[in-house]
Amino acid sequence: MNFSDDILKKSEIAVLRLRELFSGNGYERYEMNNFEEYELYAANKAFLGSDDIITFTNPGGRLMAMRPDVTLSIVKNTKSAAGGVTRLYYNENVYRRAGSEGELRERAQAGVECIGDIGVREMSEVIALAVKSLDVLTERGGEVRQSQSQCQSQCIDVSHMGFLGGLLDGLGLPPSARAELLRRVGEKNVPEVSRLAARYGAEAERALSEIISLDGAPEASLKKLASLAHDERTAAAARELDEVTRELRRLCPDADIRIDFSVVSDLGYYDGIMFQGYIEGIPEAVLSGGRYDGLMKKFGRRQGAVGFAVYADLLERGEPVSRGVPDGMLNIALPKGRLGETVYGLFEKAGYGCEDVLSDTRKLVFENAAAGVRYFWVKPSDVAIYVERGAADLGVVGSDVLAEQFPAVYELADLKAGLCRLVVAAREEFNDTRGGALRVATKFVNVARDYYDSQNREIDIIELHGSVELAPLLGLSDVIVDIVSTGATLRENGLVEKEEVCHVSARLIANKTGYKFKHNAAARLAEKISEIINN
After folding, report:
1. How confident is residue 151, by pLDDT bands cut at 50, 70 and 90?
2. What is each CA distance from 433 to 179, 237, 317, 451, 501, in whole angstroms?
3. Are the beta carbons of 368 and 351 closer than 8 angstroms?
4. Hey, is 215 helix, strand or coil?
5. Angle (CA) 249 252 258, round 5°
6. Nearest one of 22, 23, 17, 24 to 3, comparing CA atoms
7. Are 137 and 279 in contact (CB under 8 A)?
8. Is the pLDDT confidence value at 432 over 60?
9. pTM of this prediction?
10. Measured in whole angstroms, how far is the alpha carbon of residue 19 from the centre of its chain?
């Protein structure tokens, strides 16, 4: 069926094609109400991963919610006969936060749910359907969409939350450490994973570091995964991954299927195989799914379930700046100022120098085609935005900015530059007597809030973006949370350090999609720089 892109948006065309695809593969359409009772989502916040739900009271006095998720409604409102499989598809709008900026948005979503006796065949068929869905998203008007002179690439990354959960159990990691470790694994953050895991022994540090390194074709990755299995649970998960990827090779031999354990979720969400789909030029996953038998059990259902959702609205994003010239070069965002000049020296030593980068010029973009790099200077606090949004493939940013903005990026290396600390400072005579809300002046609003939440301390945040040391001197705040290097500025203004929040250093970060489609070049650059730092 042909659709006119003069009349319909890309996302609308994609949804119509997806409906055609799902229906043609034996899935029946499931339609639902626009609203659900809030209690459904309140009772399943672990599954949603967020408690940001838009609510309202209906004329009957019941608290209702704008739907943040479709799967919960389907599990709650459908029944499946024992011994069979129910295949449903949907296209609905959901309301959830999008990106690190945290805006609540209406998002166009289409997807499938397969409920019943789920084995290797059913699991493989669902992922194969996800592959075909990516094919649909890279079509327009019946022809493959072109990105300048070449077709868009696409891939499916697969992991297994059951293996990760079993590994964490076997290593004896307490529940309090798991959420943070999973988040760091999802960032490919080797330095932080090593630091956190080292608290629980050398074996925990080794195993989790190796999990992060799994990123590539199934054959080699699954051999390594099998060597990390330490009990029947993890061995069974590794076997399942092996069997499913073998079946996928048969069902879609040309598909780019990769094993990548940065595909993670809270263990209360997916509890088996999990997968995400990426399209080159779109800076985040356009498809996400997995197995969720645990949710079925919570609703008193003993069947298995697997599904995925496609975020068709992402097709409306324009091509990122870095895709203007599809030359395969690595686009690297450097922070203006002393930190950027320092870390550029690391790139230069690694063989990625570029003429005139440090010259006195108003130019912002510099290229070295022979080395395959393109640099551009941006404001330090904007680096993570350029990378997350796909305008840059790589970037250098302080860990303080990452902690404040929590962008959805990979954190590839600690560059051990720009070393400083985030501290709580106040007048020397100040003592926190807990006689009410502590007034905290800072530009690091999220960091300060998280720090004091961990102490169960009520605070009044005063957001400032300059000369924050003035706040306690003029009585605007009791304390400040700010960066210190030598402490000279604090001393000159009559302030003293009261508590240390965290250490800060420069980090090399990567856009998730860019890292997948420029993986060899990006990984090689990160490896060379790490060798220089470690030596």
Report:
1. very low
2. 32, 52, 51, 18, 19
3. no
4. strand
5. 60
6. 17
7. yes
8. yes
9. 0.88
10. 27
Strand duo 287-291 + 304-311: pairing: antiparallel
**pLDDT digits 0-9 by tens, 162-211:** 999 999 888 888 887 888 888 899 999 888 888 888 888 888 888 888 89
CA distance 37 to 55: 9
Q: What is the DSSP string of 90-127?
A: EEEEEEEEETTTTEEEEEEEEEEEEEES--HHHHHHHH
CA distance 41 to 45: 6
Beta-bridge mates of residue 187:
none
Looking at residue 158, its pLDDT comes to 97
| pLDDT tens digits along 198-222 | 888 888 888 888 898 888 899 989 9
Between CA 213 and CA 224 the distance in angstroms is 10
CB 418 within 8 A of CB 398: yes
Cα separation, 481 vs 426, whole angstroms: 9
Q: Using CA atoms, how far apart are residues 483 and 501, in angstroms rounded to an integer?
A: 10
Q: Give residue 137's identity as a one-letter amino acid code.
A: L
Pick the closest to residue 125 from 136, 116, 109, 114 (CA basis). 114
Task: Please name the residue ranges forming H helices in 112-231.
Answer: 120-137, 161-170, 175-186, 190-197, 202-213, 218-228
Alpha carbon of residue 150 to chain centroid: 27
User: Looking at the chain, how many residues does it have?
Assistant: 535
Mean per-residue pLDDT of the chain: 88
| Bigger pLDDT: 302 vs 123 | 123
For CA atoms 262, 413, 219, 284, the dihedral sign is positive
CA distance 359 to 496: 39
pLDDT tens for residues 314-341? 888 745 434 444 467 999 999 999 999 9
